[in-house]
Amino acid sequence: MLRNVVRAPWLRQALAEVQVVDASWHMPAAQRNPRAEFEKARIPGASFFDLDACVDESTDLPHMMPDAGKFQEYMAGLGVTHDKPIVVYDTVGLFSAARLWYMLKSVGVEQVAVLDGGLPAWKKAGGDLDSETPATAKKAFFEAKDPSAAFTDAGRVLGLSDAMSMQEFKAENNTSGYLIDARAKGRFDGVDADPRPKMRRGHIPFAKNIPFGDLLKDGGEFRSKEEIAVIFSSQGVDVRAVIAGELPLTFSCGSGVTACVPLLAAVEFLGVPLSQCVVYDGSWSDWGRESNSATLPVEVTADIVKE
């Protein structure tokens, strides 16, 4: 059985036996074109997954998971099948690849992994790069199951936040699980403004802040299992209690992309069953909107200058 995280030396040996997908995506401020970079240089045999194209178009929220039919059609168009394991990577190291890993898991793909450290790690390991014009993909058969159980919405997250509030008020043990926010500390605390317009500052009440970048080394590879465990514990997430009590972990971020990095870490390195994990797909792009001020509360950790 393929692990959820694989490393570049292993991929070099197994390249002919797997399907490789580049799932690179960048924040608009980075002014990078992931498809153009893919066409310029990629892992041999890789196809390109566009996180801005394979989405639920019925909402204005970014990157929302499409239904099974649309996802199935998109993956088939890439020539990806269930016949061979899938390895996903991105050009940063570990940023957006975990999102596609989770999307694939949510529709029932079992043999899928993320390349630890992404394209930089591949280059460091001496892996070849393909710079020829990408070949046109031959449509394949790809079957997707309903992914809805793997994602949650604002209403259910509000219920979770209220439940955690009541447990804290009564000094009761945690029976509701945890809400983990993968955004940078500055945005979580409310010090830094959101990069998207008309957004509030702060975080969902009772969320725990585990910035996805804290789980990675400078090269974009995951830290050790022990370091990751300390990071979760230091933010008040009792992983042993989560596993023993079968408590749910809900992951959030700016728009549902980097939330999948701590989720992947929890599953691969801390032993949390994937079935206990869920992504708040709308994340802060949904919850933090100024238009939701009357219904979705926000907590600000830091003292900030009122605008």
Write a concise keyword list for the protein shown above.
Rhodanese-like_dom_sf; Thiosulfate sulfurtransferase; Oxidized Rhodanese, domain 1; 2 domains; thiosulfate-cyanide sulfurtransferase activity; 307 residues; single chain; TST/MPST-like; globular
Tell me the total number of β-strands.
Answer: 10
CATH H-level superfamily title of the largest domain:
Rhodanese-like domain
CATH topology of the largest domain: Oxidized Rhodanese, domain 1
Give the C-level CATH assignment of the largest domain: Alpha Beta
H and E order: EHEHEHEHEHEHEHEHHEHEH
Count of individual helical segments = 11
Describe this structure in words.
The protein has 307 residues and is α/β, with parallel strands linked by helices. The protein folds into two domains: 5-146, Oxidized Rhodanese, domain 1, CATH 3.40.250; 153-292, Rhodanese-like domain (Oxidized Rhodanese, domain 1). The chain is 31% helix and 10% strand. It has helices spanning 8-14, 34-40, 68-78, 97-106, 118-124, 154-169, 185-189, 225-234, 239-244, 260-270, 283-287; strands at 5-6, 19-22, 47-48, 86-89, 112-115, 151-152, 178-181, 208-209, 249-252, 277-280. The strands form two sheets. Strands 1-5-4-2-3 form a five-stranded parallel β-sheet. It has a five-stranded parallel β-sheet with strand order 6-10-9-7-8, sandwiched between helices. Strand 9 (249-252), helix 10 (260-270) and strand 10 form a beta-alpha-beta unit. Helix 1 packs across helix 5 (118-124). The model has no long low-confidence stretch (mean pLDDT 95).
